[in-house]
């Protein structure tokens, strides 16, 4: 993990967000795969905390999106208006700076401004959802699902969303990867035993390339 001297669970909400070093470090495939069991545990806890909010015949992703609206409404009723603005602004700034500094022109990978904005937007969305829920936690079952996603960011990873993989809904996480001098993203689908595919930062889980020649099946994420 990116914070060897800290324990995520003991930090208060603001400290958790402030301590994130977005998308660092870039790891080798072997280093990334060594984190899979921990990542699976976090994702499974995320799913468990979203299930009570999932309506019948609906998707887990829609439950996550709907909970963002419910959290803002509940926080507003508690008189805690726009407590999530701080989280959005902080995550946007830190995530975009980290992407540019470590993987953009300064990092030698020439990632476009658009890719940096996409990464920052996702980070800001999750940070805002996390803080909105925290603001109304006592009205919303006291279990914040988005804390699990924040922990993935704290580990230096790049969570995306629940995606359609085959006929199943799976959570997908990108791992910043270094393969020699090349920097890319390892596309991990929850339930796989390891990272099977990589893609460029600009490709957002498209044009997936197999990590090894043994992985002959292609994959498309919906």
List the keywords.
alpha+beta; 15% strand; globular; 222 residues
Describe the structure.
The protein is an alpha+beta fold. The chain has one domain. Helix content is 43%, strand content 15%. It contains seven helices and five strands; from the N terminus they run αααααααβββββ. It has helices spanning 13-18, 29-33, 36-50, 60-77, 84-103, 113-135, 146-154; strands spanning 158-165, 168-179, 182-189, 197-199, 209-210. A hairpin with a 7-residue loop joins strand 3 and strand 4 (197-199). It is globular, with a radius of gyration of 17 Å. The two termini are 29 Å apart.
Number of helices: 7
Strand order of the largest sheet: 1-2-3-4-5
Number of strands: 5
End-to-end Cα distance: 29 Å
Low-confidence stretches: none
Topology:
Blueprint: H1 13-18, H2 29-33, H3 36-50, H4 60-77, H5 84-103, H6 113-135, H7 146-154, E1 158-165, E2 168-179, E3 182-189, E4 197-199, E5 209-210
Antiparallel strand pairs: 1-2, 2-3, 3-4, 4-5
Helix pairs in contact: 3-7, 4-6, 5-6, 6-7
Concise synopsis of the structure shown:
The chain has helices spanning 13-18, 29-33, 36-50, 60-77, 84-103, 113-135, 146-154; strands at 158-165, 168-179, 182-189, 197-199, 209-210. The chain is of the alpha+beta class and 222 residues long. It has a 5-stranded antiparallel β-sheet.
